[in-house]
Design brief:
76% helix, two-stranded antiparallel ribbon, 3% strand, 9 helices, mainly alpha
Length: 289
């Protein structure tokens, strides 16, 4: 990220963060409506990256399935119910992509790649973003209605991930010398990765002590908060690298240009896509309700 992008990034964050917090507070249906749009746009960006690598996905049905995966998380009363709906959506998407490929893709247009990438984009974005809805309606904490209890739970992985990203960026600029995975992301350094780990760890401990424990109606021990912080720090950085890998294959710097200074949806949410399902899983075993 160039230094000249910082003012634009801060301006977007200054508007986006309060708006996002308000949407999360209002409840799962409002959040689902917004995230379904984000999921569709993110899937579209994934498909555009695939086109840059020579594959032509089926944009419309993949974007629709990505949005439906998020919306279905609000329709379902439990995670188990959503799992059934999600499987049905993915199966229908796969069959629809295969049928469409039969009639609109010749063998020379890589129909196997077309179907695979179409399904991948919907799961990669819509499937993972759905966990924001599950966190907002976390069992034993909230039912998705307006309020802070569930809002705090879903803000938790967003906060610690983005704090970790920010610390990683500044640590990398200040002390970064040795590259982390230069073939995937030349800008990532070991110093930045360590800074991100420490930043996420500290943010997790702070968030648990100041917000989760006093206001969510549940308890997260400092050991559990530290463990979640370390795991999320690692998985979030893998998410960042994974998106960088896709962009390098497509030969582009950013996945899109929707957010000034940030790039596209995938550029902003790449770490979060990995962090949301991991945080949900870890909280099931560590958050005392």
């Amino acid at each position: 990220m160039a230094g000249s992008d910082l003012p634009r990034r801060l301006a977007v964050a200054g508007v986006g963060i309060p708006f996002g917090v308000a949407v999360i507070y209002l409840g799962a249906w409002v959040l689902a409506a917004l995230l379904s749009i984000v999921a569709a746009l993110g899937a579209r960006e994934a498909y555009l990256l695939a086109e840059g690598a020579g594959v032509r996905p089926l944009h419309m049905i993949g974007m629709a399935a990505s949005a439906l995966l998020v919306l279905s998380a609000s329709w379902a009363e439990t995670f188990s119910d959503w799992s059934t709906l999600a499987i049905i959506i993915v199966i229908v998407l796969t069959l629809a992509a295969l049928v469409t490929a039969v009639f609109s893709r010749g063998i020379e247009e890589a129909p196997l790649g077309t179907v695979a990438i179409t399904v991948f984009g919907a799961i990669y974005v819509g499937g993972t973003l759905s966990f924001a809805i599950h966190l907002r309606s976390f069992p034993g904490v909230a039912d998705g209605s307006m309020g802070w209890a569930g809002a705090i739970v879903v803000i938790f992985p967003l906060f610690i991930t983005w704090i970790g990203d920010s610390v990683a960026y500044f640590a990398g600029r200040r002390w970064g010398r040795v590259k982390l995975v230069p073939k995937v992301s030349p800008g990532k350094t070991i110093a930045g990765a360590v800074g991100g780990l420490l930043g996420t760890l500290g943010a997790s401990l702070l968030f648990a002590a100041i917000l989760i424990n006093p206001y969510s109606g549940a308890m997260l021990s400092w050991i559990a908060a530290a463990g979640i912080g370390m795991v999320v720090a690692c998985i979030a950085q893998v998410g960042d690298l994974a998106e960088s890998l896709l962009k390098r294959e497509a030969g582009v710097k950013d996945s899109g240009s929707l957010l000034p200074g940030h790039g596209g949806v995938l550029d902003r949410f790449d770490s979060v896509l990995f962090a949301l399902p991991v945080t949900y899983t870890l909280l099931l075993f560590t958050l005392v309700r």
